[in-house]
Specification:
It is built from 13 helices and 27 strands. With 645 residues, it is an alpha+beta fold. Helix 6 packs across helix 8.
Length: 645
């Protein structure tokens, strides 16, 4: 072999040796880092509806786990039995099954594994178990509260008999002054006030039992209105019992408190503050006078049937009054309807359909009143006039019932009718219940849940009204679960009053929608909370400064199936941040939801985009975990930085 060929051979061997040595070094770099826990099921600091069938930990590399690598502890640090620990997927996944049913509460999973570098790594994470949801759910956002409707009908009927009775007695009192031989009519004003009091008291009981605290009820504005209505009816009842007839008309004054209170709490006042209350108040007062005066006049017609001249005089006076109150009822009713119901929703929504029924009954009652007036002018038989008057009274009593149903049904307006504004800090959370998007906003004394489903057909076409069913329960530490009484607040929107206990509150929800897979989910709502705006800004700056990192991402649109395999992405922090809703380091809602001494967790809400984000920060203030939820996706991400381990 020549000297030249020997040099070439030695050169090739040296290059091969260097390449081999470099490959060995390159392969040894990942092994020198500790294993990183990517995802857990149940997820860290979240909740599940019931006992998880298996506890799963997913790592970024193969690990070795002993038979007791996982330890489950309850909130009192007592050990909960687990089955044997197993590893699957080439030792990247560690699992263990709970040995029995886990009662509702908060649990910690303490884990210990050995990485490929021979070092042991141990940490812990926590999750909560909620309660099974029982009972029928709230369906849609246009549901009617029938219990409230019945009680409000009693309130309206009592108001009509009392207020309209005071007005109607003016006719009969004048007639008896002209003819003292006419039989005296016993007043029904006390009876009307008593019936109204029963309705007001029943509404108070219904609302108090459905509200977590009296303080919430009072701060929400409902409490003062109930007290106002009850006080007005009680005073009117007392005045109506005074034997002196001169004091009885004064009973109408406190009854106006009911009119004012109903105007303030009306749907119209939510849509058009001030003017809406005035419209509703005038409408209710006119309808009550129409009905109550007719009832009193009808009693006079029956009692004085032998005195034709007196009957004609009383009927003539009532019909003149009825013409004016009918005009007020129609005018205020039409304006209110235009405020609350788009013409396109008049026949397609429950509120619009009930409104059409009410309109038909009012027209029928007006027709009967007009027919009676014409018959009276033609001097027809009084028997026919009495029959017409009786039918008119029945129709108007039914109108009051339909009005009560309308008040107890959310209107078909755009936006979120009847949704009180959030008080204090807001905790925005999100998840998927099967294929149904669940977005939650928890604030002081209130829980708002918005449900959504993927769009079918033309994505840019008009969004059709969707039907949802929602039920839920709230459980706090060492306390029994209480059902959540949701009411509708728009398309896919539900709201309920809640009392958040200090610590971890577990909200369990069951959502369903036609043609979509639903399910039961639980969310961990810590309370109290504080602003996280400053920490979000710092975390965004820290992530932007990272030249290179690995992001392990898991995306799903349906949680009823097996969780997808995580995908590894290598990219710069600046590039990743540019794709995120918090790229500017701000969010419409940014709340810190972790206690001091625990890893910082931030809940971010983007209501206009129907998106929520939960971030976990590491000790350096960088984002270590992210859970992003929109209307159709649930995304889990784990961030691994070059200096990890």
């Amino acid at each position: 072999m020549t000297t030249t060929s020997m040099r070439r051979t030695l050169g090739r061997a040296l290059v091969l040796l260097l390449l081999t040595f470099g490959a060995v070094l390159a392969s040894a770099v990942p092994a020198s880092a500790h294993p990183t826990l990517l995802f857990t099921d149940p997820a860290t600091d979240t909740a599940v509806p019931g006992t998880p069938p298996v506890i799963t930990l997913v790592f970024n590399e193969a690990v070795t786990a002993g038979p007791n690598a996982l330890t489950l502890l309850d909130s009192d640090s007592r050990t909960i039995p687990l089955g044997a620990t197993t590893t699957v997927r080439d030792n990247h996944v560690v699992t263990a099954k709970p040995a029995g049913t886990l009662p509702p509460g908060t649990y910690r999973v303490r884990w210990q594994v050995t990485g490929s570098d021979g070092d042991q790594v141990e940490e812990e994470f926590r999750f909560a178990v909620g309660t099974a949801v029982t009972g029928a759910g709230t369906t849609g956002a246009q549901s009617t509260s029938w219990g409230e409707a019945v009680l409000r009908w009693l309130l309206f009927a009592g108001l009509a008999v009392a207020l309209g009775g005071v007005i109607g007695e003016r006719f009969t009192t004048t007639a008896r002054a002209e003819n003292p031989h006419l039989p005296r009519l016993r007043t029904w004003v006390p009876l009307g006030a008593l019936v109204g009091l029963v309705g007001a008291a029943g509404l108070a009981v219904l609302l108090v039992t459905g509200t977590s605290t009296l303080n919430t009820l009072w701060q929400g504005g409902v409490g003062p209105l109930l007290v106002t209505e009850a006080a007005g009816v009680i005073v009117a009842f007392g005045l109506s019992l005074v034997r002196s007839g001169r004091w009885r008309p004064v009973a109408a004054v406190p009854l106006l408190a009911v009119v004012v209170a109903e105007g303030v709490r009306s749907h119209a006042n939510v849509t058009a503050p001030g003017w809406g209350a005035l419209l509703t108040g005038v409408h209710l007062a006119a309808a009550a006078i129409w009905v109550g005066a007719l009832v009193h006049v009808g009693r006079a017609i029956f009692a004085w049937r032998a005195h034709r001249a007196a009957v004609r005089w009383v009927l003539a006076g009532y019909l003149r009054l009825a013409a004016w109150v009918f005009a007020l009822v129609v005018a205020t009713g039409v304006v209110t309807a235009l405020l609350l119901v788009p013409l396109s929703a008049l026949l397609t929504t429950p509120y619009g359909q009930i409104l059409v029924i009410k309109l038909a009954l009012v027209v029928a009652a007006a027709g009967l009143a007009l027919t009676a007036r014409l018959a009276l002018r033609r001097r027809d038989r009084l028997d026919r006039v009495r029959v017409l008057t009786r039918i008119e009274a029945i129709a108007l009593v039914v109108v009051l019932g339909v009005s009560a149903v309308l008040v107890s049904t959310p209107p078909a307006t755009s936006g979120q009718p009847g949704l009180p504004p959030a008080r204090g800090p807001v905790v925005p959370l999100g998840t998927l219940a099967g294929q149904i998007g669940v977005a939650v906003q928890a604030s002081d004394g209130q829980l708002v849940v918005r449900l959504s489903t993927p769009r079918r057909g033309d994505y840019y076409g008009a969004l059709t009204t969707r039907s949802f069913t929602l039920s839920g329960q709230l459980a706090a530490a060492h306390q029994p679960a209480v059902p959540l009484d949701f009411r509708g607040c728009g398309d896919g929107c539900f709201v309920t009053d809640t009392l958040w206990k200090p610590g971890d509150d577990v909200v369990t929800l069951h959502a369903e929608a036609p043609s979509w897979r639903g399910g039961t989910v639980s969310l961990l709502v810590p309370w109290p909370v504080a602003s996280g705006a400053a920490e979000l800004a710092r975390a965004a700056r820290a992530l932007r400064a990272v030249p290179q990192l690995s992001v392990y991402e898991s995306v799903t649109s349906d949680t009823t199936g097996a969780p997808p395999e995580p995908q590894q992405l290598a990219l710069s922090g600046d590039f990743f941040l540019a794709q995120e809703p918090y790229a500017a380091g701000t969010a419409p809602i940014a709340t810190r939801i972790s206690e001091n001494g625990r890893p910082v967790r931030l809940a971010l809400g983007y209501p206009a985009a129907a998106t929520t984000v939960v971030l976990t920060l590491d000790e350096a203030g960088r984002i270590s975990e992210e859970t992003l939820t929109d209307e159709t996706h649930l995304i889990h991400r784990r961030f691994v930085y070059p200096d990890h381990g």
